[in-house]
Amino acid sequence: MSNSLPLRLVLASQSPARRKLLQAAGIEPDVLVSGVDESQVVADRAEDLCLELARLKAQAVSDRLRTTADERTLVLGCDSVLAFDGEILGKPADAADATRRWERMRGRSGVLHTGHCLLDVVRESRAEAVASTVVHFADVTDAEIAAYVATGEPLAVAGAFTIDGLGGAFLNGIEGDPGTVVGLSLPLLRGLLRDLELSITDLWSKVAPGAQEIEPLG
């Protein structure tokens, strides 16, 4: 499967981890921040919430894009939430909230869900799905929790942890795609592209990844 027009992928996320994951896979996206207020969206199931947020982010960016007839523009929206102990956990409200979460999560397991919505702007088509990965948390000490929260890292991410940063030392293992925990599943993205009659190889860039400023919309 190939595409006659040059492809442009716009990542509707300010997450550096998602962008780095794409770059490492040979894809150089444009980055635009959606501005969606995540706190205004509610759902009973973690899978439904992350997918709805991914849709809203992708659509918000798509609505403001200027497209041309000489390229095919795709917009990818992603959102992650942690399902733990019957609750849906996004980003912690503050350091105290992050500390309480880790005191509950240590030595236990949760499921990290990441919703993906891929919009083909010109053809007005859409493909979407949720990737889910089981995360096993280490039985970390109070001192380790305090030190981790003090770094600020858990305050900026769903579930109050990362796998590709300092928090990786506090995970005993996962069951599923590690990219899901980072915030973007490459195997799932490949499937969504196939749904739009494209191949992930169509997005491979011959240009070495470089620094790029995030351009907020609004």
From TrEMBL:
Locations listed in the record: Cytoplasm
Instruction: Please classify the protein's predominant subcellular localization into one broad category.
Output: cytoplasm
| Keyword Hydrolase part of the UniProt annotation | yes
Q: Which reaction does it catalyse?
A: a ribonucleoside 5'-triphosphate + H2O = a ribonucleoside 5'-phosphate + diphosphate + H(+); a 2'-deoxyribonucleoside 5'-triphosphate + H2O = a 2'-deoxyribonucleoside 5'-phosphate + diphosphate + H(+)
Please state what class of enzyme this protein is.
hydrolase
- Work out whether the entry's keyword set contains Chloroplast: no
Q: Which controlled-vocabulary keywords does the entry list? A: Cytoplasm, Hydrolase, Nucleotide metabolism
Q: What is its EC number?
A: 3.6.1.9
Which residue spans adopt a coiled-coil conformation according to this UniProt entry? none
Active site per UniProt:
D79 (proton acceptor)
The cofactor required is: a divalent metal cation
By sequence similarity, the record places it as follows: Belongs to the Maf family.
Q: What does this protein do?
A: Nucleoside triphosphate pyrophosphatase. May have a dual role in cell division arrest and in preventing the incorporation of modified nucleotides into cellular nucleic acids.
User: What protein name is recorded for this chain?
Assistant: Nucleoside triphosphate pyrophosphatase
User: What is the species listed in this Swiss-Prot or TrEMBL entry?
Assistant: Micromonospora antibiotica
Q: What is the lineage of its organism?
A: Bacteria, Bacillati, Actinomycetota, Actinomycetes, Micromonosporales
Which gene is this protein's source?
maf
